[in-house]
């Protein structure tokens, strides 16, 4: 295992009875990078992450975190990582400050040191004035910030973030992602799952798109966009009567495309011109835009709704 690798995964599998949630994945996550696990509901991304932070047992394969085998060294791994789960799991019986101090005690952090760390984290999270309040009095965004502070109380070498901004209003989401950029600037290793493709595109150094328990692709967002989508996307609306006619014209010209209901997204490669698509199509609603990571996600994982 290279000294630059924070997490190394070889043929990792997780089974629940007859169901395979993670199906033989291979992956390396490097120290100091922000790595995103992306996929539709039920893809296996959260299960894979839970095995990384020792919350789910490995069925088969090998998984090393910070050079330690999760099957044998899970206690030491837990002492060196931070976890912000999808459900905050804050204790309503304790105040904001007490939630941090109790969690610090689980890591055997001396009381005086724990108090210093907790106070510093509350200031960093803009929660210092709420330290003596009950957790139940906090807004959703404040609870999320407190959960993040709790995940950082042991000064972790790797931080796992499972859907860190789900259910938050736009202002809270922006604040939290700005804070993650701060962590990233300090060379922290971040591993996250998210449904927000635009955030993953801006935040992550690399991403893996997972579906059916398998990794479909791994790479830098901009590289994946260029390789799998192209330089631009032409979108247009049509009706069912004309759809096949226009798709035939696009195929004849060598264009690839994605169809979602009555909207067609034409993927324009480097050697093609988006204006040519405009010439081929008659539509009241047609425009050319930059490709995004969401286009990559839809191309690989599809657009059908999934159960949670």
Automatic annotation (TrEMBL):
Domain named ABC transporter: residues: 7-237
Subcellular location: Cell membrane
Keyword field contains ATP-binding: yes
SUPFAM superfamilies documented for this protein: P-loop containing nucleoside triphosphate hydrolases
MF-aspect GO terms: ATP binding; ATP hydrolysis activity
GO CC terms in record: plasma membrane
Keyword Translocase: yes
Xref: InterPro entries: AAA+_ATPase, ABC_transporter-like_ATP-bd, ABC_transporter-like_CS, ABC_transporter_ATP-binding, P-loop_NTPase
Pfam families reported in the protein's UniProt record: ABC_tran
PROSITE patterns per record: ABC_TRANSPORTER_1 (PS00211), ABC_TRANSPORTER_2 (PS50893)
Annotated keywords: ATP-binding, Cell membrane, Membrane, Nodulation, Nucleotide-binding, Translocase, Transport
Family according to the record: Belongs to the ABC transporter superfamily.
PANTHER family with a match to the protein in the record: ABC TRANSPORTER ATP-BINDING PROTEIN, ABC TRANSPORTER ATP-BINDING PROTEIN NATA
Protein name stated in the entry: Nod factor export ATP-binding protein I
Organism this protein belongs to: Bdellovibrio bacteriovorus str. Tiberius
